[in-house]
Amino acid sequence: MDSVRVAAAAPDAGPGPAWQSKCPWGAPSTTSISCSLADVMSEQLAKELQLEEENAAFPEVVAAAEGPFITGENIDTSSDLMLAQMLQMEFDREYDAQLRREEKKINGDSKVSISFENYRKVHPYDSDSSEDEVDWQDTRHDPYRADKPTTTPRRGFIGKGKDITTKHDEVVCGRKNTARMENFAPEFQVGDGIGMDLKLSNQVFNALKQHAYSEERRSARLHEKKEHSTAEKAVDPKTRLLLYKMVNSGMLETITGCISTGKESVVFHAYGGKSATEDKVIPPECAIKVFKTTLNEFKNRDKYIKDDYRFKDRFSKLNPRKIIRMWAEKEMHNLTRMQNAGIPCPQVVILKKHVLVMSFIGQDQVPAPKLKDVTLSSEDMKKAYYQILNMMQQLYRECNLVHADLSEYNMLWHDGKVWLIDVSQSVEPTHPHGLEFLFRDCRNVSQFFQKGGVTEALNERELFNAVSGLNITADNEVDFQAEIEALEKMNEDHVQNHGKKLSTFSSDGDPPIYDE
Ligand code: ADP
Ligand code: MN
Predict the structure, then answer these.
(1) Which of 62, 232, 287, 480 is in Cβ range 3.0-4.6 Å of 474 for a Cys bridge?
(2) Nearest to residue 239, comparing CAs of 42, 442, 434?
(3) Where is the RIO kinase domain (predicted)?
(4) From the CA of 369, how far away is ligand 2's center (Å)?
(5) Which sequence positions are flagged as catalytic?
(6) Cα separation values, 207 from 202, 227, 509, Å
(7) Pocket perturbation via mutation, ligand 1, pick of 260, 271, 425 by most ligand atoms within 8 A of CB
(8) Maximum separation of any 2 CA atoms in the chain, in Å
(9) Which atom of ligand 1 is nearest to the CA of 360?
(10) Are residues 439 and 484 in contact, defined by beta-carbon separation less than 8 angstroms?
């Protein structure tokens, strides 16, 4: 059945109210309708975006969908699946309403009551009508920000046994306050499976997971969606569409939950699936970094990218959405450079717009701890220090990069070594502020390891020289900083005069390489 014909056939059914009275599931209340429409619309929006994206290949379909009965709200009924889902959702609602009546009848005034909650068809999130309607286009509402900061896990959600148990309890106890979960970090509704993960052996859990997964695949797509609705509310429809595509294509097996919600990104954990192409291997576990498409947080990062000559020509021509994609692109390029130099870092799997999929540093959904959160033996601490010193040198010389946000927050401890992450803001050393960024990195690293008891740790100025190979002799911070800025200015003048950058800063001979 073609959707266009459905829309065209509608006039036979008479005017709007008549159609409503003939509705096979009775006349639903206005609120339930509006909720239903909102649900469908977000799906529709995703659909529209997809259509738009696919080169407006079928513009007539979209146009035809704007029939006489889709007034005010621009609902595109261009797919039979969508119609079927709309119908199914209404039936489910009706079923649940009936269930609620039964429940009430059985319980009566009894002090002990039984709940049919678990037999409901519609996810409680969907049935809460008013609060869950988030206007995705409204950038004043930042869907990534948790309203209650305490509910945002600082790291791994496995470690958040409390959090998971809370969700679990909430499910068992009838999910009364589901609406409140909107304020949680954007976590995918994982039901009981994740809760079990804490109690069962990996083997049993994996078997369960596998089973649950294939079950889920078999069940209606609509239901699958309901399972994930909490997380969906945390990313905008475009992002949701991208994530769906990744799962639907089989590239990702399943997206399990959120690892981190930062100011500029949200990171999810996913189990890798199968690549469409033979040559590419998807890591068993992946991290999905979604760069925020709300713009305010990125304003203060302009200086990183605007002055990065690699992006200079493009910057002025781009709209803000594209600039955000550029952050993801930058992270991808930088990670690739690092990978090629053999620096331990996430391996890029795929970049789609502002969504970067990379290998997961950690195991069994538990991300590796940040250096700031892990207590290392003094031996490991020393080892970590020398490793970082080496990595900073490699980064500078082999990758021609300065991390520019290097600190114990962006270094993970995994497999007995340090892994560098979060390189979207990394710049080349000849960036107008590149050396200042490097100096700041050095300060963070020096302070962390000096406080951490590594007596061999160079001070920030020594570290700067050791990494850059420059030989700045100033023996105090202020003068040192001034020399750095003078070098940067020299480079800029060179750019002005010669139209291109120095390939590198000149140094007095080979810089010392620090080895263990
Ligand atoms: P932000 O800009 O928000 O700081 P990051 O890239 O630092 O973005 O990611 C935020 C957090 O997500 C990290 O501190 C880390 O805990 C986790 N994370 C990011 N990427 C990975 C990864 N590839 N593997 C494991 N955890 C990761
Ligand atoms: Mn970070």
Answers:
(1) 480
(2) 42
(3) 224-469
(4) 12
(5) 405
(6) 8, 20, 59
(7) 260
(8) 88
(9) 24
(10) yes
Give the ligand 1 atom nearest the CA of 421: 6
Q: 100 C-alpha to center of ligand 2: Å?
A: 46
With both helix axes pointing from N to C terminus, report the angle between 30-53 and 80-107 in degrees, rounded to the nearest 10. Answer: 150
Ligand minimally distant from the alpha carbon of residue 301: 1
CATH 3.30.200.20 placement within the chain: 234-367
Ligand with an atom nearest the CA of residue 372: 1
pTM for this structure? 0.58
Name which residue sits closest to atom 16 of ligand 1, judged by CA: 155
DSSP for 138-155, written as a single string: -TTS-TTS-SSGGGS-SS
Q: Which of 421, 424, 426 to mutate to test the pocket of ligand 1 (most atoms within 8 A of CB)?
A: 421
Atom of ligand 1 nearest to the CA of 267: 12
Domain with CATH 1.10.510.10 in the chain: 369-502
Q: Which two tokens stand for residue 48?
A: 């529209």
- What is the Å distance from ligand 1's center to 421 Cα? 7
Cα(424) to centroid(ligand 2), Å: 10
Give me 157's structure tokens.
């959600």
Question: What six digits make up the tokens of 386?
Answer: 């020398």
Ligand 1 atom nearest residue 266's Cα: 3
Question: Which CATH superfamily, name and number, covers 234-367?
Answer: Phosphorylase Kinase; domain 1 (3.30.200.20)
Residues enclosing ligand 1, CB less than 6 A? 155, 259-260, 262, 264-265, 267, 287, 289, 346, 358, 360-362, 367, 370, 410, 421-422
Residue nearest to atom 19 of ligand 1 (CA): 267
| pLDDT per residue of the chain (516 residues) written in tens, 0 to 9 | 444 443 333 344 444 444 444 545 555 544 444 444 454 455 556 666 666 655 444 444 333 333 333 333 444 444 445 455 556 666 677 777 888 888 888 888 887 777 776 676 654 333 332 222 222 222 222 222 333 333 334 443 434 444 443 333 333 333 332 322 222 223 333 333 333 333 445 555 455 555 555 544 544 344 444 434 434 446 888 899 999 999 999 999 999 999 999 888 999 999 999 988 888 899 999 999 999 876 544 455 565 666 666 666 665 566 777 888 999 999 999 999 999 999 999 999 999 999 999 999 999 999 999 999 999 999 999 999 999 999 999 999 999 999 999 999 999 999 999 999 999 999 999 999 999 999 999 999 999 999 999 999 999 999 999 999 999 999 999 999 999 999 999 998 988 888 766 666 654 434 333 333
d(CA 310, CA 116): 59
CA 479 to chain centroid, in Å, comes to: 41
Amino acid code (one letter) for 48: E
